[in-house]
């Protein structure tokens, strides 16, 4: 086994999420670099509560929950959309902005409703990753700036992807392939920092 193969073999990480879309995105981003384990892979069916009031707090809650229960190297993330004209909303409450957790259609509809007639459409996505590696916690952040469209466009991705157009592009995240999105997305950028850390510290 070569040096690179040994590094990859050592890097087994649990991603503390029940979100299949997030798991797919990160698996694509780390393919060939890290062996990513899902909660299902470690027989964890727990619904980890997100009781924090910041992205950092929620990411840390997830990673610490898994590490404390299973003693495995792991990471959790928290992500959200912040809109300048809405004073940073939906922010940490992005997944449940319209009330029910994970109702993407309702969340998008509320954003569009709240921005009706508003000229300033500036927004940004943020991802914070909390990695617990050999008992120590490390944080990685990724952001991407853009604007909110006036209507939904595209069928790929999830969440607010159909209404978010990243700066420098004339299409939304939901009109991009997963590979295109991972290059510039908030989660892709945070994961790239995570991978760099692991390659340097494995």
UniProtKB/TrEMBL annotation:
Organism: Mucilaginibacter auburnensis
A Pfam family assignment: Ham1p_like
Residues the entry annotates as binding substrate: 17-22, 79, 158-161, 181, 186-187
EC number: 3.6.1.66
Keywords of this entry: Hydrolase, Magnesium, Metal-binding, Nucleotide metabolism, Nucleotide-binding
Classification via CDD domains: HAM1
PANTHER family per record: INOSINE TRIPHOSPHATE PYROPHOSPHATASE, INOSINE TRIPHOSPHATE PYROPHOSPHATASE/HAM1 PROTEIN
Homology family: Belongs to the HAM1 NTPase family.
Cellular-component GO terms for this entry: cytosol
Protein name according to UniProt: dITP/XTP pyrophosphatase
Subunit relationships: Homodimer.
Cofactor(s), names only, from the UniProt record: Mg(2+)
One of the record's GO molecular function terms: ribonucleoside triphosphate phosphatase activity
Catalytic activity, reaction form: XTP + H2O = XMP + diphosphate + H(+); ITP + H2O = IMP + diphosphate + H(+); dITP + H2O = dIMP + diphosphate + H(+)
Main function: Pyrophosphatase that catalyzes the hydrolysis of nucleoside triphosphates to their monophosphate derivatives, with a high preference for the non-canonical purine nucleotides XTP (xanthosine triphosphate), dITP (deoxyinosine triphosphate) and ITP. Seems to function as a house-cleaning enzyme that removes non-canonical purine nucleotides from the nucleotide pool, thus preventing their incorporation into DNA/RNA and avoiding chromosomal lesions.
Gene Ontology biological-process annotations: nucleotide metabolic process; purine nucleoside triphosphate catabolic process
Residue positions binding Mg(2+): 78
Cofactor note: Binds 1 Mg(2+) ion per subunit.
